Amino acid sequence: MSDWIDVAAESALADGEHVVIEVDGYDVAVFKLEGRFYAIEDVCTHDGAEIASGELDGDEIVCPRHGARFCVKTGQVKCAPAYEDVATFPVRVVDGRLQVAAQN
Fold it and tell me: Which residue range or ranges hold the Rieske domain (predicted)?
């Protein structure tokens, strides 16, 4: 069973915006794309740097350090220099509140 962490009001993020929160000691970036929410670990699997401050290109986040790309929806790596996917976290909306599940 997962513990759900309250993030913000569902209306707090506009499409293309994100917020970074801590979930069980991990930085997690929560994105809103086309009216849906997605959460990925805020770390580039290439060098361990944060990625949420990078440019959002469609449904891909571009690492600001070396240009690796990750799908925000799935965590899948899309181009080198990274070769490993980033972790994803379940997201839900309950009573107008955005929540992210902690990984157990």
Answer: 5-100
* Residue 51 to residue 76: CA distance in whole angstroms: 14
Q: Could you read off the pLDDT tens digit of each residue along the chain, which spans 104 residues?
A: 469 999 999 999 999 999 999 988 899 999 999 999 999 999 999 999 999 999 999 999 999 999 999 999 999 999 999 999 999 999 999 999 999 998 74
Residue 104: both structure tokens together? 């157990």
SS percent in the chain: helix, strand, coil, step 5: 5, 45, 50
**100 close to 7: Cβ distance less than 8 angstroms:** yes
Nearest to 77 by CA among 45, 36, 37: 45
* pTM, full prediction: 0.93
